[in-house]
Structure formats: structure tokens, C-alpha cells
């Protein structure tokens, strides 16, 4: 019988984007001497495997407890603040990209930070996602 790896994101620990990455690092990077930064690209890379607790690159269960709280705290307000922060740092981030994302959110067509995370998770066939 094949061993199934399991990781549980505790939604009670998540109150903002920084907390989300602290939780991800707690689960996946506990044996590393470095942590992934607050980056959706880094999160996507992590889920491909090859480092951290997902070194084996095998399939795993990803359980997310109290997901409704996470959906709320990583929702519209947080996402708007996220893109506004990017606008305040034009030397680091594309202002046009951030403006287009904010406009889409204002028009009710943009993705929240939570929805982007969900899209990343769903794009990885190695993840058996279990919302709870």
C-alpha cells in the first residue's frame, strides 16, 4: 500500500497574507534553513515539489481547516490592499499590472488572493485538496 503524505493548513492561524505564508512555511519548510517568501509564484513552485517537505514530489493530501475564515480574510479587502501596496512600489512591481487587477476587482471580475491560491492548488495534479 502506498503511503499518503498529508499536510493540514490551519485556517485559524490565518488572518492576513503574511500569516498564510507562515502557515505554509510551518508545514512545508520546517526542515529547511530558508523559507519561501510572500509570493504566489513561490507557492506555485513549492507545490511542484523537489524541496521542503515535498521533496519526494509524490501525491499528497492538502487539508485546509476553517477554510471559510481564510476565504474571508484573504478576500476582496485584502486583495485590494495587496495590489495598492504593489502600486506604492513602482520600482519593484508593474504599476500597469496592479492597476488592471484593481480595475477588474472593482468591476466584480477579478480574483481575490484566496481565489488565486485555490487556482494554484487546483493546477497541481499531485495535490488531493480537502477543504474542511
Automatic annotation (TrEMBL):
Q: Which domain of life is it from?
A: Bacteria
Q: Which InterPro entries match?
A: Barstar-like_sf (IPR035905)
This chain belongs to the protein called Barnase inhibitor
